[in-house]
TrEMBL record:
It is found in: Membrane. The chain crosses the membrane at residues 44-71. It comes from Adineta steineri. It is a multi-pass membrane protein. Belongs to the anoctamin family. This is Anoctamin. Keywords: Membrane, Transmembrane, Transmembrane helix. GO terms for molecular function: chloride channel activity. The lineage of its organism: Eukaryota, Metazoa, Spiralia, Gnathifera, Rotifera. Residues 36-72 form the Anoctamin transmembrane domain. One of its GO terms (cellular component) is plasma membrane.
Amino acid sequence: IRQVLTLHNKEILSHLRETWVWPKKFFFTRQPIEDIRQYFGVKIALYFCWISFYTKALCLPALYGIIIWFYTGRNQY
């Protein structure tokens, strides 16, 4: 035997799916980071914290870029 892998817990994954994954959740809803940490570990939870922060941080520059794009003319290139 070279490696042993554990199976996922369907009850916990169902809870995570309901509180985190479903598309009905609004963009700025907080992620259940503590639940993610308990199930997947610290590294994965930190990754999702970073992705959440980075996505939200880029919303304002993206909006600014879209406004500038419309203002300067879309057919410039």
